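Title: [Solved] UDENN domain-containing protein 3D structure

Original question kept below for reference.
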Amino acid sequence: MPSLTDLYKVFEQVLLCESAVVLAKSPQLCSEFISALVDLIKPAPYAGECRPYLTMQSEFFSASLDGGAPKLFLIGITDPFLLKRVLDMAESAGRAAPLLINLYDTDFPVPLKAPHVHHTSQAEADLPNGVAVRSRQKTYMKVDRLFLKALEDMQTDTTTAIDSIGPFVRRHFATLIAQFLAPLNRYLATRMATSVLSPGGNLQYAHFDETEFMQSLKKHRSSASTKGQTPFARRASRDQLYRKFCRSPSFYSWLDVKLSLEKEASAGLLGPTTLQTVP
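Solution (posted by the thread starter after getting help):
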């Protein structure tokens, strides 16, 4: 990745179920990176098409009814010319271009911020003509500078084991996703109902109302920090982030998983360890 700060950009992209393409030099790196991205947003799932490694012969390009790529996808590729095909298909279908996560020239240690260079990088030189590295412009979450500084120091600290960096990153984003989902869990708890149609009583949620949820969010707020120089700007970023998530396919996939786990828990089908981790 160009910088450690980009972790938040990629985290939001996957959380909001937007499309992204990972371009790397090996299938293993593609697969491992995409698996790590999906893991970052758990317990929220990525509801789009997820392909850790894609080749030119893949059925991915004829998977949808209109004969093109799926509308939302997270894919890994090693062929820059395949990237051009993916971008061209998105453009011809009138869809937003996917975020390109270019790992071709990722070095270790990864810098805190991407360097501002005016010359063509090696990664850009490896791309076919007409393909530009695209960055998602609008982000909502505020980066944790202390976390990023600690992560930067871990990369250069000779006493830190390399394999300890991954769990450190995962713990940080596990806390962040828990903070993000807390207002939704709070609101849904008020919408819980017990069905009288089943002798055992099945857990179910009343109809989700985005307007009511946003009112609840305004009242109870969120501990997940969002961008903005003023309280008004931070609230605006927060509201935009939650609205985008609630309107994304991943929201309903998360709700299905949550409801399924709670039904199993109420029926005594989950063990004590699992019960403690129900989102």
